[in-house]
Amino acid sequence: MADSRAPHAPSSASATSAPATGAGTIASGDALLRGLGGYVSESRPEFERRLAELVGIPGVSADPARAADIARTAEHAATLLRDAGLSARIVATPGNPVVVGEHHAGADLPTVTIYNHLDVQPADRAQWHTEPFRLTIAGDRYSGRGSTDDKGPALTALQAAQFAVGHEWPVNIRFVWELEEEIGSPNFEEFVRAELPRLSTDVVLVSDSIWIAADRPAIDYGLRGLVTFEVTLTTGHNDTHSGLTGGPARNPLTELAGLIAECVDATTGRVLIPGFADAVAPVADDELDGFVASGFDVETFMAAHGLTSLRTTDVREVVRRIMAEPTFEVHGLTGGYTGPGVKTIVPPFATAKLSTRIVPHQDPQAVFTLIRDFITARHPDAVVELEAAMPPYLGPRTGPYADAAADAVEYAFGRRPAFVREGGSIGAVLTMDQYLKAPVILMGLSLPSHGYHAPNEHYDWTQAAGGIRMFAHYLAHLAARPAS
Fold first, then answer.
1. Which residues make up the CATH 3.40.630.10 domain(s) of the chain?
2. Residues in a beta bridge with 205
3. What is the 3-state secondary structure (H, E, C) of 44-97?
4. pTM for this structure?
5. Torsions phi, psi of 48, nearest 5?
6. Across-strand partners of 120?
7. Which of 17, 207, 231, 430 has its CA 20 to 30 A from that of 185?
8. What architecture (CATH level 2) is domain 225-280+325-390?
């Protein structure tokens, strides 16, 4: 279906009578949404039961000992999809499976694919106020590992789909629930390639992102890419006495520290490698205005991340650097003696663990090659090893599918969303963008306070209720479009 087609105009009958669906008659989006408000409130106990069941399964993908729990998560997820009126299948991969749920309304009808992940981060019980793998409900707050990342948003979308399926809306709905996102989606590309003939879609919705401020909805349309690598410098076979060898002996820690200083200005963060930023596209003023309009506050940002100072406190510069500029970061410098006191040796080797976040239109392999060549030109005996490379993503912030997302958010939360870019990376988004050839829209529901990856992670009913309305509105928009 061409994405430039306008929604089907509602007839006078559809504006005054119950939604007419199926049999070739398409109701208006507004007519389809009748009864949604009552459904949302009435479905709350069902949502809470489903979330409790999912949170209660500790599907930690990073822990091999949790393999059985990953399998249980997949089986239970398939059951939830079937209970909501969709078909479900569990697709094996060389790693963890992917769960696919589908409602097929017609071959000539629009198709939406909704992606979430159901694997979770580990949880240290000592750091939690409640049991991390048992949902605790306190008023509107749902505490538990995975509640906001990403089981709560996944079930939010499912509740909306259940309403659409139950009312026989003319739209095809597909869920793709991954179980390896928290370990970098190592097998997701293989899944997509193998299933490609069965994954054709008009649009992909992803609900795995965070608003900038609790009172300001946001839609992400961009992600930074990532290149991680290690640099190792070996200058000897063993520790030597600094009194006997210091001076003529090369110190690999000192040399690596100096090398890093040649790569990046420690005060400003500006990357100093010639040619590094040549492909970086400038941010348009209206884009930057959107970043600021997201509700970003510098003091809140610092407090949330425990930062005592920044390189700049100008709000436009801060959001520009997070959302639209590349970085060069040092994550660790190892080598030598790190025990109590000072051991006066010259170490034989040192390793720096480094990464760069890249932005459109930087190519990860080209960036790594540039950095490697810059380093080895100065230190021919340095070994530079690539660990991972992920390109950036830039999706639509205008056009039919992005506009429909903005309308859905405004309908659900009463405010037009800001369009922003995410500073991090989501591998599955890149894979789907590459292979499915459809717009990927990030309609996240999590808030900064929800504690992504942190102790005492939680979700809340306000976001869930709004999210059900949001996804239902988007589905209704597609259902009200003429068939291809």
1. 12-222+393-479
2. 114, 441
3. HHHHHHHHHHHHCCCCECCCHHHHHHHHHHHHHHHHHHHHCCCEEEEECCCCCC
4. 0.86
5. -65, -40
6. 60
7. 231
8. 2-Layer Sandwich (3.30)
**Nearest in space to 300 (alpha carbons), one of 219, 220, 212, 223:** 212
Q: Is 148 helix (H, G, I), strand (E, B) or coil?
A: helix
| Cα 179 to the center of its chain, rounded Å | 14
Beta pairing partners, 89:
100
Give the helix/strand (H/E) hosting 191: helix 188-195
CATH 3.30.70.360 placement within the chain: 225-280+325-390
| Residue 243 CB neighbours (<10 A) | 10
Does domain 12-222+393-479 sit in CATH 3.40.190.10? no
pLDDT tier, 3 (very low <50, low <70, confident <90, very high otherwise): very low
The two tokens of residue 236 are 């000897």
Q: Are 83 and 143 in contact (CB under 8 A)?
A: no
| Contacts for 6-11: CB closer than 8 Å, 24+ residues apart | 6/481, 7/477, 7/480, 7/481, 8/480, 8/481, 8/482, 10/480
CA 211 to chain centre: 12
Query: What are the tokens at 47?
Result: 């949502």
Q: Per residue in 174-211, pLDDT tens?
A: 999 999 999 989 999 999 999 999 999 999 999 999 99
Region label for 360, one of left (φ > 0), alpha (ψ between -120 and 50) or beta (otherwise): beta
